[in-house]
Amino acid sequence: MNNLWKKEAERTEYVNLFASVKDSGLDEMCIELFTLGKSQKDNLQSTEWLVNGNNYFCQNKWYKAMECYRKSLCFAQAGSANEALAYSNISACLLRLNWFNETLHCIELARQSNLPDRVKPTLKQRVIDCLRRMLMSPSYPVYERMHKFKPKLSYNADEDYPCMANVVEIQRNDIFGRHLVAKCDIPVGQTVLMEEDIPLIRDDNDNRSIEQRKTFLKLRWGIDCKCEKCVPIRASFDKKVTTSDLSYKYVVENHKNTNDFANVVKNCIRFLETFGRSQWSPEIEFVFNVYGQCLRMGFGN
């Protein structure tokens, strides 16, 4: 304010235009408002806001809980566990509000902070739940295709390959490689091959899922898998695959929800790669985005 003086025309004296203004303490208020001292970072206050947020969370008051967690984050000292816990708790609220992208973003921020080991399994499961709900949400185009399109063979299924009609057979030669050959005249528009059996979630009560995974091995590489257990595939399509490249593990014992879901996404990508990138659609881009989230969260490797 000292710079806002007015010089009168006839005299050399200066008049303070703010002389009649009462001292309102604006200077002190501005200093207090915009000065961030070390004393403002206090993990005790941060913990208090965490507790307040948890109380609102138990009452299903998500917005009030997030406001408390935000204040906890402001008071949390950099690199402390409170910082990670605040992000983690905010992500829990966002998931209940169906803000899936924001949920994954907050979980990633929590992972980048000093996250306690006891919280990591909870966040892992939250990522799985979030991605599954994203896939099942009507706001995503994959939902409509998943629930409305149910392929069905136009002929009886082949005895060895349940996802292929018995009017075609798989042959291989040096000219065409592995290819399909019709056993008879097939009218246009008939369904002779279904891809639904490939991207499949393992159902422990459905023995057919094991047969379908073994069928996938036969169709892709001509490998007749004799293993009676589920066969998750750990091989790249960019190289020639041999039996030694496959890792046989039983899903029930070694593959919990995380890998089950990641394998579904991987199989979807493998399925889409078969048709080439020129035919990609928003649904395909969505699948790759979900898979990218899996990788960034440390899953599906």
From TrEMBL:
Family annotation (SUPFAM superfamilies): TPR-like (SSF48452)
Protein origin, superkingdom: Eukaryota
Protein name: Uncharacterized protein
